[in-house]
């Protein structure tokens, strides 16, 4: 149990640290864009006739994708820099929530781990996955609406997709280590219970 709690604590603090580093890195980028007086985001033009070109047997459809550059306020820079709310914001919020819950359980409710069954563990993993995708969808929807309001509905938000893969991999390792240790622990408890019966 001590090894499990130690891994739990380290993984929780790692996720919180990753969330904070992600947010600080994003804020530095946003302030840099604000000080430069220019922010560029990729958008798609609304209500335009699509141009289709036929090249042999293939068809090419123009999507009217372009770069929208403007002088942002500090808040706009924070929201829109580097897929701010959509990419960084959703990931940082997820890491922060999961990390905080893990640290809370490790320090305040370690007894909860003693009675954890394998089925309950997979329910928690499913709830975590639902939380992750709900945050991603919510942030994307809010940024999309914000951009449409900002541009007077002339453009739609187009997700660029470039996120920091290194921090994503590190956080995935932290989460998978917790799942593995909890799974091993719940199986060990089940075996001990079967032996006592």
TrEMBL record:
<feature type="transmembrane region" description="Helical">
    <location>
        <begin position="121"/>
        <end position="143"/>
    </location>
</feature>
<feature type="transmembrane region" description="Helical">
    <location>
        <begin position="165"/>
        <end position="183"/>
    </location>
</feature>
<keyword id="KW-0472">Membrane</keyword>
<feature type="transmembrane region" description="Helical">
    <location>
        <begin position="7"/>
        <end position="28"/>
    </location>
</feature>
<feature type="transmembrane region" description="Helical">
    <location>
        <begin position="92"/>
        <end position="109"/>
    </location>
</feature>
<keyword id="KW-0812">Transmembrane</keyword>
<protein>
    <recommendedName>
        <fullName>DUF2975 domain-containing protein</fullName>
    </recommendedName>
</protein>
<keyword id="KW-1133">Transmembrane helix</keyword>
